[in-house]
Amino acid sequence: MGNEIEIYNAPLPRATDIDSANKRISEYVKQTPLLTCATLNDLSGASLVFKCENLQKAGSFKYRGATNAILKLTSLQASKGVCTHSSGNHAQALALAAKTKSIAAYIVMPGNAPRVKVDAVKGYNGNITFCEPTLQARESTLEKVRKETGAEFIHPYNNINVIEGQATCFYELLQQLKTAPDYVITPVGGGGLLSGTILTSRYFAPRTKVIGAEPIMANDAWQSLKAGTFIPSENPQTIADGLKTSLGSLTWPVIRDNVYDILAVSEESIINAMYLVWERMKIVIEPSAAVPLAAVLENKELFRNKKVAVVFSGGNTDLKNLPWN
Amino acid sequence: MGNEIEIYNAPLPRATDIDSANKRISEYVKQTPLLTCATLNDLSGASLVFKCENLQKAGSFKYRGATNAILKLTSLQASKGVCTHSSGNHAQALALAAKTKSIAAYIVMPGNAPRVKVDAVKGYNGNITFCEPTLQARESTLEKVRKETGAEFIHPYNNINVIEGQATCFYELLQQLKTAPDYVITPVGGGGLLSGTILTSRYFAPRTKVIGAEPIMANDAWQSLKAGTFIPSENPQTIADGLKTSLGSLTWPVIRDNVYDILAVSEESIINAMYLVWERMKIVIEPSAAVPLAAVLENKELFRNKKVAVVFSGGNTDLKNLPWN
Q: Using a CB-CB distance cutoff of 8 angstroms, which residues of chain A are in contact with residue B55?
């Protein structure tokens, strides 16, 4: 494992690119804390450290990738703004990152998006265009917005600058932790965070095994890995709303060739893990962010006595509609 | 303001005592993070830093005082254990601090204490004796337990070692923040945290103004300060259950002579501040911990453009019974 990585369809971020991205975004993103919890160590039999991206600006790690993408725009691109389709954390992250640099953000959201998410994007001055809740409608509406505005499309995960930004999460974790963990485990939806984590691991912590965690109800990454070929999600139903998306053409090959394993967990495990974190660690994580801890607790043998870094990916959830009430 | 403080009925912790306490407890307590929130800065017009004792072990700053008291026991005292009466965070903190040193903890709790609090103390191996929910019953039951066991009584706040431990919260904050804030604001119930904060401020940050915040519905500190004489709480009803207690004979004179002001806030403000913190900062704070932020938001003129340290005192609350549901 050297300082290079195999090139797929597009050039992937190199070690120096990740280091540069970390410097580039450092004055805009939060250095989120690493927390530990004696109760969860006891429960799991592992030594867990939690990277709290739920405490990141805009409430998730997505702010890293969005900020990196925004800061890499040319002046001409910046003058025309950015656009994306998302009902989730990437929309909020991109809107806030754009606002911070006084850049316009055009967000295409399905008409049935939760009101808290719509309000959050509006709060960050995002220009919202609503569409039918289908992928086709999202893409055609986005294309229309893009043509009208000339805005640069920042894909939620299938974008090199976004992946490079997400790679800084584990990079920062390694700087905080001093010694590399035995495992790092992140959620996997579109694969931006997981592929970024893999790149950082290969360059800076090659002995750390990288694991992706997803709901059984949206286990396209697990299915793809077992089949050895990309299998998309088909209308998945899970409480982990951030993990419904399929992998992308950039993220899938990185994951296929480098991930140690994909672990899939039940809905009940996700809710239990989420509740445990709120109750014992006193922090708010969203269902998607609870998936890696659920995977640790469902696979105790694998992690016993190991040092495991767990990424809490985000904290955006409706406080008035909690799964245990 | 020098390195001494006026002595009242009992010798108060000196600067060297607080420094020693900080060293003594450092391997047992968490160095809790300081967090910031752009939204709350915008809302308040102040520059706020939040000391997250909700992320402390046992879920509150009380673990500092309890740990300091436990570590200062003689071997003979330790062999007989500790006892207290509390239905709240001190009970959990003392039980866990005692367990950590393999010392017995006897906790007297009212029979109507919330089940989550009873379960937490049991989870820390505390020996619970239930009593009638009156101060008289608590004191007589405690006296009985003390006689039977020979355990050392660790009062929740009217105890020098406990106050010394609570003083380390602001001491640690000062070390993290590098420059002293214009204001530090803590909740005030029995006054252990507030008087400890005052002592640390006088010794190590004499220009920082110390403010106590309490519910209007339990404003014994405000009343006492205005009257210039100790006025106890009388059956207060507030959602901030940790702040119902009256000041103590040790804490009241320190507060009387040194506090910059006591600010009292409405129940509605407390719930609003609590919700804001959960929603925007993604951390779980209990109602009592929201009281200082509520005071900042109710008194914007006082804090405008000032650097204000706000202590989030604890995070122990029933997730299945939230005030906004």
A: 35, 281-283
